[in-house]
Amino acid sequence: MTTAGAYKNEMMPEWGLGLVVEDQPGNWVLVFEHAGRKKFIKEKAKTLVTVNLPPEALEQLKAKLHGRHAARTGKPKSKKPTKNVATFIIFDDQLKSFERIFPGGFEADSFVNGERGAPGATGKLGYKTAGISLAQAELSPERFESATPAEMFDAAKRVLGSTNMVFPIEGVIPFNSLAEEDRPSAMAGLKLLLHGDGDYAARLEQFAASMHLKDKAGKANKVTWPLATVFGALYYPTEQICVKPTAYAAEGATLTLPVEKSQPVAAAGYRQFYKIAKATQEKLLAAGQKPRDMVDVYSFIYRTHAEKIPAVTAAVV
């Protein structure tokens, strides 16, 4: 096995394509499009197969994944809080980086097929398009009126699993930790979030408070920003946002709109992140780009800043 080309794991095709980023004695470390970093024992890596890509497509993949690996490995570990550092000094540099990853911008096949998802595609092959369609079908007012809380919990879980926007450790895994007796209140909070009246940011804070998550030891676990915000972003893609705090904080630094990335899910924080997303949307439109909605704006922010990938436990094969 060489280490210069693209690979896929035959047992986990939903991971997407990967590149070798570390060739260690006895191990390879790869970064995959939708699963992050994974370590493989060389002698047992039988399910890794080479994918022949045209040179241009391979370069696009390298541009897409290189920033993620750099974000993971390029900074020294520190327990002390650090200031948000702008990945790009000016927005024009960020836009150029995006166009290198996706030549042709939001309308290009490379963006639609690799990021947005083609219309009609199902499951993870649909990426964000599939998630939007499923959310609007499964989480409608009619569904909340006719279904039981248990049925709505299962529907919400299907929505979480239908998109690549939220990593399992940010979404499905903590969501599954909801005890059965706590699920009705969480679903009432989700109904209020999506179909209630009044300020959306305040409803988001109430939804986060309604989810009594627990860790493996049974202790209370904080609700993550991606989990709290993804449902609204998928149901109202032209209006609301999914928040990845590290990427949004980097975007805020580029736009001189500072925000604290470590803050808990609350109304005031959502308004700050939303201001950053809207400012980014305005700059994209002014530059002649055509994001379909705030989900595309999310993709622009996340992909260009290459937020640090969560520490997912690697599947060793």
Low-confidence stretches: 73-82, 307-317
- Secondary-structure content class: alpha+beta
- Range of strand content: 5-15%
Rg is 20 Å
Q: What general outline do the C-alpha atoms trace?
A: globular
> What integer is the average pLDDT?
85
- Residues in helices, as a percent range: 40-55%
How many helix segments? 13
- End-to-end C-alpha gap: 15 Å
- Tally of distinct domains: 2
Q: What is the spatial order of strands in the main beta sheet?
A: 4-3-2-1-5
Describe this entry's structure for a reader.
With 317 residues, the protein is of the alpha+beta class. The chain folds into two domains: 6-73, no CATH class; 91-305, no CATH class. The chain contains 13 helices and seven strands. The protein has helices at 55-73, 91-101, 109-116, 127-138, 141-146, 149-161, 172-176, 183-195, 200-210, 225-235, 245-254, 267-286, 294-305, and strands at residues 6-9, 18-24, 27-32, 36-41, 48-51, 213-214, 220-221. The strands form two sheets. Strands 4-3-2-1-5 form a five-stranded antiparallel sheet. The protein has a two-stranded antiparallel ribbon with strand order 6-7. It is globular, with a radius of gyration of 20 Å. 40% of the residues are buried. Mean pLDDT is 85; it is low at 73-82 and 307-317.
